[in-house]
Design brief:
BirA Bifunctional Protein, domain 2; SH3 type barrels; 2 domains; 7-stranded mixed β-sheet; 15 strands
Length: 256
């Protein structure tokens, strides 16, 4: 079921408000708008979206079916659904850990997942997704945005893009619940910079992981992506053979 609203500050905030007031929604219920005025990204960042050009939506996921130790699978599920949907249009979409969607070195989609609590348990999860569809001019200070139109040179049906993403979510959902490693294998196959050695910088846990312009100093180091563990940590392999697991907010990508 999809509920469309003409204009809203944030689909995630609205569904969270409704849920906290006692409303409940079935798995894959989706609240969507083409005019989101105060979209939220990771780490409290805003999300720029020109009115009537892009899609902003939040989908309810029945995370009660997953143990807390495997909630990371929801992030993989959403990122893969968007990447596969965009690839169906001919875009070489990849997943920048943990769940941004990139085409080349340009960001086309952001994802924010929040949990609805019932006492000490998680009742459901809200997957907020913003996809740049037909926007051509970006005015925020985001370093590297792009859109489907900028990349492919034509307008796209926002409703169709939404339908393809939701279809992929439904298709991949059994893999998120499965004990197999199939979902993680698909995620790794789509991972941005999964091949080769790249520059990185460790950061304080209070600082957000993001891609930044190269700054030559002693804090940068070269490493290759080794894997993603079941907790969603990024495992980097350094040139000296040592491996280290990084949680969200502990590492930055660097553009050469």
């Amino acid at each position: 079921m999809i509920e469309f609203v003409d204009e809203i500050k944030s689909t995630n905030s609205e569904l969270m408000r409704r849920s906290q007031e006692g409303e409940s929604y079935p798995h894959l219920f989706t609240l969507c708008t083409f005019r989101q005025t105060a979209g939220r990204g990771q780490r409290g960042n805003g999300w720029e979206s020109e009115p009537d050009k892009n899609i902003s939506f939040t989908t309810v996921l029945d995370s009660s079916l997953l143990p807390v130790t495997r909630l990371w699978r929801l992030s993989m599920l959403c990122a893969l659904a968007v990447a596969e949907a965009l690839r169906s249009y001919g875009l070489e979409a990849s997943i920048k850990w943990p769940n941004d969607i990139y085409v080349g070195d340009l960001k086309i989609c952001g994802i924010l997942i929040e949990n609805v609590l019932q006492g000490s348990t998680i009742r459901c999860s809200l997957a907020g997704i913003g996809v740049n569809v037909n926007q051509e001019i970006f005015v925020s200070n985001a370093p590297n945005p792009t859109s489907m139109k900028l990349l492919l040179g034509c307008d796209f049906s926002k409703e169709e893009v939404l339908a393809r993403i939701l279809s992929e979510m439904e298709r991949l959902w059994p893999l998120a619940l499965s004990e197999s490693e199939s979902l993680r294998e698909l995620y790794m196959a789509r991972l941005y910079r999964k091949e080769g050695t790249w520059l990185w910088r460790e950061v304080a846990s209070s600082t957000a992981p993001m891609m930044i312009t190269r700054e030559a100093d002693d804090e940068t180091f070269e490493a290759a992506i080794d894997s993603i563990n079941e907790q969603g940590q990024l495992i980097l392999l350094r040139a000296d053979g040592t491996r280290r697991a990084y949680s969200f907010k502990e590492i930055k990508y660097i553009i050469r």
